[in-house]
Amino acid sequence: MGGGGQQTESGEPAKGGGVGPGGGLGGSAVYTWEEVQRHSHRGDKWLVIDRKVYNISQWAKRHPGGIRVISHFAGEDATDAFVAFHPNPNFVRKFLKPLLVGELAPTEPSQDHGKNETLVQDFQALRDRVEREGLLRARPLFFSLYLGHILLLEALALGLLWVWGTSWSLTLLCSLMLATSQAQAGWLQHDFGHLSVCKKSSWNHVLHKFVIGHLKGASANWWNHRHFQHHAKPNVLSKDPDVNMLHVFVLGDKQPVEYGIKKLKYMPYHHQHKYFFLIGPPLLIPVFFTIQIFQTMFSQRNWVDLAWAMTFYLRFFCCYYPFFGFLGSIALISFVRFLESHWFVWVTQMNHLPMEIDHERHQDWLTMQLSGTCNIEQSTFNDWFSGHLNFQIEHHLFPTMPRHNYHLVAPLVRTLCEKHGLPYQVKTLQKAIIDVVRSLKKSGDLWLDAYLHK
């Protein structure tokens, strides 16, 4: 494995045969996992896909999904994540060629950190079966009708006021209809954001901007860079932004004890299961997300997303200013966001918050996703209410799969889990919601015990 070659970002010479200045192999450079894992630092990042070693140190800044999501796999095998996130991996591989610096030595296992190779191979076989059976192909009619019911709700809400006026009861009914359309548009933008609707990624991107921008007034890029990190490392502290609670809450079993031992008390965490109802569901979308979205668009000079978002607010005020005036229209959209936020928080947290939340453990794709996600029982209402995210396990394993196929792959996933002794959790909707509060109380109690006694 000795020999010349270009220097890496850290100044360490690449092992094996010479590596040309463009990154292409001039020989057969081979590496051990130990050598690959040395390159998992800021400014020096290598990862492995299909046993080939890539230096992504500089390219990560240009990664379409954002620098963070790809950097989370530095020093690791990223094969399953690479295949999961890209509908056409073969097309994407051509962009990897200039980054190739070698491959794993023949004596090295395909998996890092002692991962179960049989389990990984079985999951990859399941992935191949999913592709063969066409479960990654969308039904355009399903999503067309879904968009239609969102637009119908918007039209009915406005028509209600035009025909019957703006009494308190009718304004409340209008708000409920708008909140429903906003929540359902949230699930639809999620579909386009995951590239699970159209065959061409470019069409998914355009329609994603339309739905999240024009129908919801938010930013596609903000959502992509945040949400893909969550999928890459769900419930992993410092990597999943959805468990970065900015010291407002402590989550899981490890973080509360760490805070308690360090005597950190930013909030009275033993009461977090109570104040969650005051600052969690009511404020996430109307306050935190709204501020973060506009801050991101301006700081990154993302004028395209800003223009799309402005079309939403322009349309909204044109529609409702004649009824409520300027301040009344602001009050209406704020109330709609308030209602939507409750819907969004409970649906998104019931699948994740009660599950394992820990620091990086370098698990394989299947084990990692199962430890951080659970399903909710299937029913027509649950499917609609959650945007089919009651099949959270299947969605996390196959993020580009159109949601109407989750129920078809679920029995196959369950069988694979049973084979390898992995938990496949399915809860009722009521239990899942209650577990959110129970998990917050448990974490708060762990913090208090550590704060007082450790």
TrEMBL record:
UniProt-annotated location(s): Membrane
All copies of domain Cytochrome b5 heme-binding, residue ranges: 28-105
Keyword Transmembrane appears in the UniProt entry: yes
Segments of skewed composition (Gly residues): 14-23
MF (Gene Ontology): oxidoreductase activity, acting on paired donors, with oxidation of a pair of donors resulting in the reduction of molecular oxygen to two molecules of water
Region (Disordered): 1-23
Pathway assigned to this chain's UniProt record: Lipid metabolism; polyunsaturated fatty acid biosynthesis
Annotated GO biological process: unsaturated fatty acid biosynthetic process
Family of this protein: Belongs to the fatty acid desaturase type 1 family.
Name of this protein: Delta-6 desaturase-like protein
Lineage: Eukaryota, Metazoa, Chordata, Craniata, Vertebrata
